[in-house]
Amino acid sequence: MVREIALFSPSRALILSTLEKLEPLSKEDLARETKLSRASIYHHLDVLKRWELVKEKLDKEKLGHPIFITADKSSAVSLGLLKKFRIIFPDLFKSKRNKKCSKQKKEKK
């Protein structure tokens, strides 16, 4: 349980929420979108990979084979952890579409 609690950080939640909205992304694109340093991205991605919350995919069609990162929703464990991230950091996981809908509802009142 203590190991699981150490997993939940605002930076990791930001990475996961960004990947859910914009995946797949390269590590460089992920750093640019989240405004986190490349070193921070690499560190947090290592932790998230160990917990099977993200996976890497090579793009063999491009020179240099860039690696793209996606959220891994293939296991019950990762889905359970993603759900906990959404509960702990709800503001990060709100989609832009949901924000527009709530603004429209307020305007109608």
Short description:
The protein contains six helices and three strands.
Write the layout of secondary structure elements.
Blueprint: H1 2-7, H2 10-22, E1 25-26, H3 27-34, H4 38-50, E2 54-58, E3 67-71, H5 76-88, H6 96-108
Antiparallel strand pairs: 1-3, 2-3
Explain this structure to me?
With 109 residues, the chain is mainly alpha-helical. The chain has one domain (2-108): Winged helix-like DNA-binding domain superfamily/Winged helix DNA-binding domain (Arc Repressor Mutant, subunit A, Orthogonal Bundle). It is 61% helix and 11% strand. The protein has helices at residues 2-7, 10-22, 27-34, 38-50, 76-88, 96-108, and strands at 25-26, 54-58, 67-71. The chain has a three-stranded antiparallel sheet. The longest helix has 13 residues, at 10-22. The radius of gyration is 15 Å and the shape is globular.
